[in-house]
């Protein structure tokens, strides 16, 4: 990938609604050149999807996000890929990462309740033959997501009292 396409990606990542004309102006390029670069990256599956970052706590609080650390035994000749694919096909699974360190996969899932997330772990995930162990964490509050601060910092309006 050339430097120009990389700069276009960075600008789109900051704001996916930026029009090609604006990107062209920011990069000192022609609009057609930007449009062509974006189309090529979409075709090559570099740009997979355009999606907003939503602060769901402002809309509703009726979903639970779980982060699950999973230790697995890789399959001979296939490694972690087949198991990861089996896991990411579940509709409640939002993200799957192959990790270095104490565990192999990190999975982010969403459910309506803690019980629903626990059901996924106990009845779907832990029953996969290659899964050795799981450790589940629940997200209590998101402060920043994808480089975007979700909560405005509120200034302390209390009066200062000194002894």
TrEMBL record:
InterPro entries associated with the record: Dimeric_a/b-barrel, HTH-Siroheme_Decarb, Tscrpt_reg_AsnC-like, Tscrpt_reg_AsnC/Lrp_C, WH-like_DNA-bd_sf, WH_DNA-bd_sf
Ranges of residues in domain Transcription regulator AsnC/Lrp ligand binding: 70-141
Database matches in SUPFAM superfamilies: Dimeric alpha+beta barrel (SSF54909), Winged helix' DNA-binding domain (SSF46785)
Top-level taxon of origin: Bacteria
PANTHER family: HTH-TYPE TRANSCRIPTIONAL REGULATOR PTR2 (PTHR43413:SF7), TRANSCRIPTIONAL REGULATOR, ASNC FAMILY (PTHR43413)
Protein name: Lrp/AsnC family transcriptional regulator
Organism from which the protein derives: Chengkuizengella marina
């Amino acid at each position: 990938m050339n430097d120009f396409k990389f700069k276009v990606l960075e600008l789109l990542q900051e704001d996916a609604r930026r029009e090609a004309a604006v990107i062209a102006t920011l990069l000192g390029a022609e609009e057609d050149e930007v449009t062509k670069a974006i189309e090529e990256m979409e075709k090559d599956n570099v740009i997979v999807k355009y999606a907003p970052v939503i602060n769901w706590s402002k809309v509703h609080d009726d979903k639970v996000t779980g982060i699950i650390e999973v230790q697995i035994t890789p399959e001979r000749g296939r490694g972690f890929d087949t198991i990861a694919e089996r896991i990411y096909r579940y509709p409640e699974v939002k993200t799957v990462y192959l990790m270095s360190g104490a565990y192999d996969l990190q999975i982010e899932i969403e459910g309506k309740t803690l019980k629903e997330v626990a059901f996924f772990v106990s009845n779907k995930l832990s029953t996969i033959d290659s899964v050795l162990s799981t450790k589940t964490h629940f997200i209590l509050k998101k402060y920043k997501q994808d480089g975007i601060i979700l909560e405005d910092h509120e200034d302390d309006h209390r009066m200062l009292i000194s002894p």
